[in-house]
UniProtKB/TrEMBL annotation:
PROSITE patterns: ABC_TRANSPORTER_1, ABC_TRANSPORTER_2. This is ABC transporter ATP-binding protein. One of its GO terms (cellular component) is plasma membrane. Residues 8-236 form the ABC transporter domain. The keyword 4Fe-4S does not apply. Residues 219-236 have a biased composition (Low complexity). GO terms for molecular function: ATP binding; ATP hydrolysis activity; transmembrane transporter activity.
Length: 236
């Protein structure tokens, strides 16, 4: 029996965008549980619903049918319970890097000076402390991605959801970011879910799932060479 704590539970959770002839079913009835200690990689072709699934798990999108619940929590999760490393640009343009990184803590009520100190520590973990005073527009895509990882770590969530967190990183930096995410998940006693196209990233995690046309399933062969083709991103 698995005694680890369930952090999020999806019961036949589906998400459809649009209506009628324009409806797109991004996620079909996903059923899963994610627990403390889970280290899950999700593979799937572009457009198969991986980001939508992470948004459902984070409470950022409502399922059209079915349900998503966070046992032990009232209502939606906060940034200090579920943290998301988004795939695209997610930093607030008017805030500098340290302010962006500290923001989830400040929103959760932490005084600004201690939030800034924690933000700087987390920026250092992803080798981005030297970027603290920069604005998002001054960052490369890879630097912004590392700051987005630091922002999630700063909030010390119990569940970390990372959407292609190495997609814009070179191999060595990508490997380092996965090291940091795994170490943070261990330290926090958290669950970690990473979407990726890269077998090397998936190989660092202990469970492999796949999304195909919006359908989620455990799939130990999701990243094997014979799996349906997925574009290869930058390599960690
Ligand atoms: N806000 C939206 N409005 C309408 N359709 C959407 C929206 N977001 C996603 N979709 C559609 O839902 C489907 C799943 O998209 P999603 O971004 O979840 O896929 P993905 O597997 O994460 O893709 P990628 O690997 O390219 O990031 C796609 O057909 C997409 O066009």
């Amino acid at each position: 029996m698995n005694t680890a704590e369930v952090l999020v539970r999806c019961e036949a959770a589906a998400r459809t965008y649009g209506t009628g002839a324009n409806a797109v079913v991004a996620v079909h009835g996903a059923t899963c549980e994610i627990r403390t200690g889970d280290r899950i990689a999700i593979a799937g072709p572009s457009g198969s619903g991986k980001s939508t699934l992470l948004h459902l798990l984070a409470g950022l999108e409502e399922p059209t049918t079915g349900q998503v619940t966070w046992p032990g929590q009232a209502g939606k999760p906060r940034p200090d319970t579920v943290g998301v490393v988004f795939q695209g640009p997610s930093l607030i343009p008017a805030l500098d890097v340290v302010e962006n990184t500290a923001l989830p803590l400040v929103l959760c009520g932490q005084p600004e000076p201690s939030a800034r100190r924690r933000a700087l520590d987390c920026l250092a973990l992803v080798a981005a402390a030297h970027l603290a005073d920069k604005l998002p527009e001054e960052l490369s895509g890879g630097q912004a991605q590392r700051v987005a990882v630091a922002r999630v770590l700063a909030a010390a969530p119990r569940l970390i959801l990372a959407d292609e967190p190495t997609g814009q990183l070179d191999r060595a930096t990508g490997r380092h970011v996965i090291d940091v995410l795994l170490a943070a998940a261990d330290t926090l006693g958290a669950g970690l879910v990473v979407t990726t196209h890269d077998p090397r990233v998936a190989g660092r995690l202990t469970q492999q799932w796949s999304m195909r046309d919006g359908r989620l399933q455990p799939d130990p062969d999701a990243f094997s060479p014979s799996a349906p083709a997925t574009p290869q991103g930058a390599e960690p």
